[in-house]
Amino acid sequence: MLELYPWQQGIWKKLLQNQQHMRHTLLLTGKKGIGKYTFSRQLAKSLLCHSATAEHIACGACLSCGWFEQNGHPNLHCVIPEALSTDSIAIADQESKESSSLSKVKKNLSQQISIDQIRHLNDFVYLTGHQKGYKVVLIYPAETMTHAAANALLKKLEEPPADVLFILVVHQMQRLLPTIRSRCQQIVMPMPSVETSIVWLKQHGISDPELILPLNDFSPLSTWSFVQEQLTIPHQHFVDSIKQGQNFDPFALALSLQQIHLSTVVSWLQKWCYDLVSCRVTGRIRYYLKLLPVIQVLSKQIDLIAYMAFLRELNTHQKLSHHPLNARLFLEEMFIRYSFMLCGK
Ligand SMILES: [Zn+2]
User: Fold this and answer.
1) CATH number of 230-343: 3.40.50, 1.10.510, 3.30.450, 1.20.272?
2) What is the pTM of this model?
3) Cα 189 to ligand 1 centroid, rounded to whole Å
4) HEC assignment per residue over the chain
5) Staple 145 to which of 23, 150, 263, 343, CB 3.0 to 4.6 Å?
6) How many whole angstroms from 62 Cα to the centroid of ligand 1?
7) For the chain, which residues make up each domain, given as ranges?
8) pLDDT tens column, 174-228
9) What kind of fold does domain 6-191 have according to CATH?
10) How close is the Cα of 66 to the center of ligand 1, in Å?
């Protein structure tokens, strides 16, 4: 069962009140982990529903809603990279799944949307639908289209068939072809306030959301996913080790974290180092709020210039972490560099 998140009620009303929007290709943009995918599915469901409510909410009871919930609606076509497609998309939000931080990511499946996937849309888009009314094409995340796929889509958007609505969902607008962007009606999806996120997380059984929300870039769905994947324990281990300053053992830490997705571990260290630098320069921190006293002590010991260079180095590590390599060696090298920094070497 898909439901809108509380922070999406306003944009839902605004969008659905003016059905003019629906004649265009919609482009839903916004930060990862705020529920854009759920929103786009709910929108598709509502447009396809035979008896939506006055607020344009799908009834959940008609034949169309039944097909939708079984992931078998003949007038809906979802285009998603192989690696993200799941058997039971409705169980949880795709965006929270996508933020998955454990290394259980299906390794050999493509992270991109291929030209073949876009070509397969031809029959759906150009032939008559099974029912009257809208046909909806949902592309998520649209920036993962290969260049060839994006160009193939562009041709369809240039001459869109009547009653076909394309909904493109993107996390990073700048990665989408400008020629595609210019053909879309852009909808900026709202980021929930910290207070709203905390209330929502507490309602979903997360204790101490104040402390883990900053670690997950203030995204409520990524925070939820962080707890579901039981990352709190390895993360606590990371913090317990790293806060020891010069006494921590980079090899033991690398060994214990090698099963966690590398980019996740790099982002933990980036946030930690950011807080050390920020504390030294401004006296304030952003992420590890609970550890302010420890960070205050450590921040006085660091060589600021060298540390800022190390932060830039971590940006490179972040890029490299997405490529296949030896996780343990990668982490060892990064933690050794960090420990050298503390020793002033
Ligand atoms: Zn319905």
Assistant:
1) 1.20.272
2) 0.80
3) 24
4) CCCCCHHHHHHHHHHHHCHHHHHCEEEEECCCCCCHHHHHHHHHHHHHCCCCCCCCCCCCCCHHHHHHHCCCCCCEEEECCHHHCCCCCCCCCHHHHHCCCECCCCCCCCCCECHHHHHCHHHHHHCCCCCCCCEEEEECCHHHECHHHHHHHHHHHHCCCCCEEEEEEECCHHHCCHHHHCCEEEEECCCCCHHHHHHHHHHCCCCCHHHHCHHHCCCHHHHHHHHHCCCHHHHHHHHHHHCCHHHCCHHHHHHHHCCECHHHHHHHHHHHHHHHHHHHHHCCCCCCHHHHHHHHHHHHHCCHHHHHHHHHHHHHHHHHCCCCCCHHHHHHHHHHHHHHHHHCC
5) 150
6) 4
7) 6-191, 230-343
8) 999 999 999 999 999 999 999 999 999 999 888 888 888 998 889 999 898 888 8
9) Rossmann fold (3.40.50)
10) 7
